[in-house]
Amino acid sequence: MTRATGRSRVEVVLLDAAWVKALPGVERLVRKAARAALGVRVRSLTVALSDDRRVQALNKRDRKKDKPTNVLSYPSGEKTFLGDIVLARQTVLREARAQKKSPADHLAHLVVHGTLHLLGHDHETSDTDADRMEALERRILRKLGISDPYLEV
Q1: Which fold is adopted by the domain 2-143?
Q2: Helix boundaries (H) for the chain
Q3: Which of 4, 64, 75, 115 would disulfide-bridge 37, Cβ 3.0–4.6 Å?
């Protein structure tokens, strides 16, 4: 299902129906977080809510890491359609429990994080880039009423 704000569009593809049971309203949450990261930019993207098995296969194929990860971003290289984000339900929920965060807040953080990657932000190239990206994530999440995800619990 697709909903637009202005001309920004966030399409949510439910590949793992267990997301809905684990987080009622998950599609609305994903759209809200992605739009917060997009700001006033006129862009679109797709967020796939998947599971560990599928994400592990993608991570192995694309990053040569044979394990699931919380979020993968696939930039399109286009100006208006930014690309795709894929999230692994079991990993996201496991991390939220381990970090003593609400699953909704952790998911919102990962959607913001993935969206920023699609916008060209990076945290793996340098510490300076990582600091900039984390500061931006904190500002966006604060606007969503979510506390700093990088604070130690």
Answers
A1: Collagenase (Catalytic Domain) (3.40.390)
A2: 18-22, 26-38, 52-63, 89-98, 103-118, 127-143
A3: 115
CA atoms of 4 and 15, how far apart (whole Å): 21
Can you give the residue ranges of every domain in the chain? Answer: 2-143
For residue 27, give the amino acid letter.
E
63 contact partners, CB below 8 Å, separation of at least 6: 69, 72
Q: What is the mean pLDDT of the chain?
A: 92
- Provide the pLDDT for residue 152: 64
Tens digits of residue pLDDT in 127-136: 777 889 999 9
Per the DSSP assignment, residues forming a β-bridge with 44 are 9, 81
Q: What is the pTM of this model?
A: 0.91
CB atoms within 10 A of CB 30: 26
Burial 132-150 (b: 16+ CB within 10 A, else e): ebbebbbebbeebebeebe
- Distance CA(26)–CA(19), nearest Å, equals 7
